[in-house]
Automatic annotation (TrEMBL):
InterPro entries: DAGK (IPR000829), DAGK_prok (IPR033718), DAGK_sf (IPR036945). It comes from Bradyrhizobium niftali. Catalyzes the ATP-dependent phosphorylation of sn-l,2-diacylglycerol (DAG) to phosphatidic acid. Involved in the recycling of diacylglycerol produced as a by-product during membrane-derived oligosaccharide (MDO) biosynthesis. Substrate binds at R3, A24, V25, R26, E27, E28, E63, S92. The lineage of its organism: Bacteria, Pseudomonadati, Pseudomonadota, Alphaproteobacteria, Hyphomicrobiales. The keyword Zinc does not apply. Belongs to the bacterial diacylglycerol kinase family. This is Diacylglycerol kinase. One of its GO terms (molecular function) is metal ion binding. The active site is at E63. Its EC number is 2.7.1.107. Mn(2+), Zn(2+), Cd(2+) and Co(2+) support activity to lesser extents. Its cofactor is Mg(2+).
């Protein structure tokens, strides 16, 4: 039980640090909060609403992992390093793919709600 409590504290600390230091994380938390009521309005079913919220939460998860990689890379060196730049670009690409996926889910749900599917 103690291990679970410590892991919870570590997770809270990591999220708090990310919120303080990364604008993208703040924007995605805002999008997640906004998605909660919107998903229930747009989702044709309760399951679809949950999927929509999870799609936005997935973007946040990928952003947190990308932020962790970037912070670690910056800790290694602040000098320009081609390979570190490529690693950071891959993390950014992962966020971009997650955003595209979330957007596709939301577009499909809107189309579904409008009765076109």
């Amino acid at each position: 039980m103690l291990r679970i409590w410590k892991a919870t504290i570590n997770s809270r600390n990591g999220l708090a640090f990310a919120l303080r230091s990364e604008q993208a994380v703040r924007e995605e938390i805002f999008a997640l909060l906004l998605s909660l009521p919107l998903a229930w309005f747009i989702g044709a079913t309760a399951m679809r609403a949950v999927e929509l919220v999870c799609a936005v939460a997935f973007v946040l998860v990928v952003e947190l992992l990308n932020t962790a990689v970037e912070k670690l890379a910056d800790r290694l060196t602040l000098d320009h390093d081609k390979q570190i730049g490529q690693v950071k670009d891959m993390g950014s690409a992962a966020v971009g793919v997650a955003l595209l996926m979330a957007g596709a889910f939301w577009i499909f749900a809107i189309v579904e709600r409008l009765g076109f599917v």
